[in-house]
Amino acid sequence: MSHRLLTLLFIVLAAACTVFAQPDPNHPQPEPPRKPAPGQPALPPGGRNTIVEATPNGLFVFQSGVVAKFDATTLKPLGTLQLFGPMPAPPAMPDTPTPQDQQALMKWKLEAMRRMAAASMLVKDNLLLIVTADTFFRVNQRVMGIEAKISLTDIGDEKPNPSAWMTPMTLTLQDNMLYILRANQLTALNINNGEITGHGDLPREMMPITPPAVPDKRTDKPAGDTPREITVVGVLHHVALEGGLLALRSVEGDEYVLEGKVIADFSAKQAVEGARARVTGIFSQHPGVAQYGKGYLEVERIQLLPDLNEPAPK
């Protein structure tokens, strides 16, 4: 009799453990971090794009191209608005990608970088004024809807420049005129009709200042070394200089600002922020002129390389 009682008690305890081990639907467990799919390297961190604003209409949080609205007291979610629409799923990449596969992946990366871009937001009456990537949005706080969406790309320039999207910006509002400062570029926008009324550049005297080059005592090389062709392998990233330029951080940790038509055309055609590349060009230093890092590299040739875990092509 005692054996049967112990068996029954064991069955009851096992059943209870099974029930209590089930996840509570009212308190779902957090999802583990998602890893990038094979063949799809992780994207680099984006610009500063998390913003919180409290208004009489609620608490608004902007991040990754999405506006979320909460009750200002209870923090109950009151809706979301995806400014660029739903993020498309990444394309499936075969072991040996074709040019079409690579193009599809670059298109997807461009969409991802648009959402990771630096952003700034102002509040005016019942509106949220948001600038992110290359777009201005006028959002109605009450109905969580987009009233206006204006491209800030220069007229005639239809190619996106994702490297410039990562540059933080400053917004200021005077009546109905919104002024946007990104790197050394100013833009004036009428928030009512969406008209871009002007573009301007900060004076050169306001550019970042670095000490002039000094001789290298180890090699007796003079300041402003003679321009010469070099090849550097490193990671491309954006720097807020002269309107937003690309720089190359070498494996040794040196920084080179990339110049010239080759890099301008190259970066306009594809997303390069965070990509690994081999760059060949004319290296120079400019004594007495604002300089970033090691110096300047006028690009002659550029080649994107595989992920760091893969061997670089010869």
How would you describe this protein?
Mean pLDDT is 76; it is low at 30-47, 216-224 and 308-314. Among the domains are: 51-86 and 102-164, Thrombin, subunit H; 228-304, NigD-like N-terminal OB domain (OB fold (Dihydrolipoamide Acetyltransferase, E2P), Beta Barrel). The chain is built from 4 helices and 17 strands. The strands form 4 sheets. The chain has a 5-stranded mixed beta barrel with strand order 13-14-15-17-16. Strands 1-2-3-4 form a 4-stranded antiparallel beta sheet, with no helix packed on it. Strands 5-6-7-8 form a 4-stranded antiparallel beta sheet, with no helix packed on it. The termini are far apart. The protein is an alpha+beta fold and 314 residues long.
Mean pLDDT: 76
Please report which band the strand proportion falls in: under 5%, 5-15%, 15-25%, 25-35%, 35-45% or over 45%.
Answer: 35-45%
Continuous helix count:
4
Structural class: alpha+beta
Inertia-based shape: globular
Radius of gyration: 26 Å
| CATH level-1 class of the domain at 51-86 and 102-164 | Mainly Beta
Query: Which percent range fits the helix content?
Result: 10-25%
Task: Examine the secondary-structure arrangement and name the CATH architecture of the domain at 51-86 and 102-164.
Answer: Beta Barrel
Unreliable residue stretches = 30-47, 216-224, 308-314
Strand order of the largest sheet: 13-14-15-17-16
Order of helices and strands: HEEEEHEEEEHEEEEEEEHEE
Please give the largest β-sheet. 5 strands, mixed, barrel
